[in-house]
Predict the structure.
Amino acid sequence: MYYPYLRGKQFELLAIKEMAQDETLSELVHPVIEPVRDIDGGGLERCILELHKRGLPSTIIVNPQVGHLAGEPDSTRDMVTFLNDRPHLFAYINLGILVTAGMPIAQILSDLTSLSVANSSVSLLHRDFPDDASDLFKIFDKHTVAAQFVDSQDATRRYRTLADYAEYRSDWGAVPLVKWQDHFPKQMRNIDYVDLPEQLFSDDHLYFEEDGFVGISDFQTIGDGYQDGGRLPRAVVLHLTYQRESSGPLYIRHFASDSNLDAADTAGKFSEAVAKLVRFADDRELQNPAVEKFRFYESTGGFPGLGTLKKVSIQNHIYVMQKALEQK
């Protein structure tokens, strides 16, 4: 199973919503969404509903750590209110809790008691060891823990040293593990990708089961780092993951514009970058709906906007991942 981790910005939500609408999102894909903007704006609900129509589950983070909702003391309570006001969403939603060093575990668990659905399914996504780690065990008293997202199996072992571990040992040990890592080679500036060579992106899809995991999760071609807004770039860069062979690892290439002296003519820069991407895709005979969109933009000379380019890059990565798992 592949769990793409997405921030709930417009084009990230559109990436999976469109794939669900087009019926090209595989049942092997389970999106995880961290809301980062106004949850009542409609985008998050429309995305969940489209997944719901196709019978596809998703996980929604109830304690966001980035964006407008980060650090808000009432963020979990607001998410609970959002879900209670929309009981039709519960059928295909899991809840996700980001486990961090300073998280108010007791407050989060208290807020979750207000959910209108009893014994809801919850996943724990481990970023750091929390200050009140023993309180985390209490989640088993009220909820079914569906999965623990970790960068390695060591992330959950530290809990065994806690005094309360013995009481919850069987529950804790029975929770499936998802390997959660950021493979994207993030650079400080777009211009820094110009001379970056092709790189190995990941081989997790080949080995996660024998390593003791039930699934894998990543941050696609965006990376874990979060930025809200930004300036026009000097270079337009298109990130493309692909497989050299069907049973092999994933690689990533960065197709950059050439006229990068200043930030003028973003559309022209895109034309330079997409021409390189399409030549490469044609040489490699790459085929999926996202690659076809890039071919369409190149052939028509259109510029869809930077947000749409990010969306299509995300979609390509999800197509590549689900195909890799289907062929495994």
